[in-house]
Amino acid sequence: xxxxxxxIRAPPNLPGxxxxxxxxxxxxxxxxxxxxxxxxxxxxxxxxxxxxxxxxALASKPKPPPPSGGDKGEKKKPFNPFENPLPSMTxxxxxxxxxxxxxxxxxxxxxxILATRTVKPQxxxxxxxxxxxxxxxxxxxxxxxxxxxxxxxxxxxxxxxxASQPHRHIQLLPVAQMRAGLExxxxxxxxEVMADALSSRSDADVPFAVLTDRIASGATxxxxxxxxxxxxxxxxxxxxxxxxxxxxxxxxxxxxxxLAMTRTTMALCPRIVEGATIxxxxxxxxxxxVALNGTVLAGTALVKNExxxxxxxxxxxxxxxxxxxxxxxxxxxxxxxxxxx
Length: 341
Description:
Distance between the termini: 23 Å
Structural class: alpha+beta
Oligomer: single chain
CATH superfamily of the domain at 14-59 and 80-191 and 274-327: ATP adenylyltransferase
Radius of gyration: 20 Å
CATH architecture of the domain at 14-59 and 80-191 and 274-327: 2-Layer Sandwich
Largest sheet: 9 strands, mixed
Order of helices and strands: HEEEEEEEHEEHHEHEEEEEHHE
Helix content: 10-25%
CATH class of the domain at 14-59 and 80-191 and 274-327: Alpha Beta
Mean pLDDT: 89
Strand order of the largest sheet: 4-5-7-9-8-11-12-10-16
Number of helices: 7
Strand content: 15-25%
Shape: globular
């Protein structure tokens, strides 16, 4: 089990548990996996190989159940997939305050979720045990006895971040599964997790501000949380310079943002919009909005219709246009911390 300085133990053989649970729930019909087509784009001069994935089946994704309960005149409770998950969707408890569950609608195989056992708001600043639990899962994947693996964790917070569930949760994607299909895609071997590239390569650049810290081996829960709060406060100041030092590191978040963590990197980007519309190659027709969540920090984007898929592949700079709108300009002074935990 992975505990060390984190104070939280991830289950033994976590990759095997996730894989077995995913396959069982998929066969039982309790989750849906949406296969995708994939292309690699290089928008502008970013130095980043960006995954573009297309899943036409997502256009017909079922809607969540309607709100339930509540007497006449009382507000009904929205459906919460994390409060009482099906046994088949539950991977394991992660004491003391979290549970690991499967994502019901998966684009990436073995996509799973770290959720709080009690309902806590997605819009609040993360607590120390949230960060420690997520990193314990990352460490467990890397230290797996059968095969060391990388895990990408991301958190969406606020209306412009791509967040869709109010119950606090961090999402986790096995990087090996994120590479599915890349072996047959042109330049597929060039793709790497963008958060890692931004924190380690001088030629990696994107048009929106991303604040990063490198995570040292053996980082404690307190160090990890302090780094996250520091990045969050710096991001708030980018959007609200007038606040200077008066940024609270707890409670309701002041901004929308995405957080990403890998074994070696923590990255955070403040968000001002969820996405942007794109036009056809001729520029005459709007073919759809492209919305981005925390997977943007992995260097991935998802589209749901063929017109968007074609337009972005024909002109990768359209993706650059979307990226330039989602956050603060990367030319903003002081956007990268680049420190080590």
